[in-house]
Amino acid sequence: DGVERPSNWYCVTAPMVGTFYTSPAPGEPPFVQVGDEVAANQTLCIVEAMKLMNEITAEEMGTVREVCLEDAMPVEFGTPLFYVEPHGAPAPAPETA
Prior knowledge:
It contains no helices and eight strands. It is mainly beta. The chain has one domain (10-86): CATH 2.40.50.100. It has a four-stranded antiparallel beta sheet with strand order 1-8-6-3, with no helix packed on it. The chain has a four-stranded antiparallel beta sheet with strand order 5-4-2-7, with no helix packed on it. One of its GO terms (biological process) is fatty acid biosynthetic process. One of its GO terms (cellular component) is acetyl-CoA carboxylase complex.
């Protein structure tokens, strides 16, 4: 998509072809929104494939920085769904000799 993102952000992608859903059911609030803090393995969305609801989870703790799709959009394998800024340890300060 040509958008520059910080290199430490990770992309959550669709593990299968299906339909992207932001919430557990129509009319319910989304699992996450931009700016939300997420825990490792927290559900971010659902991808429905052949009537099976597959929960897509965060790889690690962080902050949701981008939701790439609208609710109920079709996705292909590898489609970017979210970008998350991890809450890793800060980069070590360079050593001075």
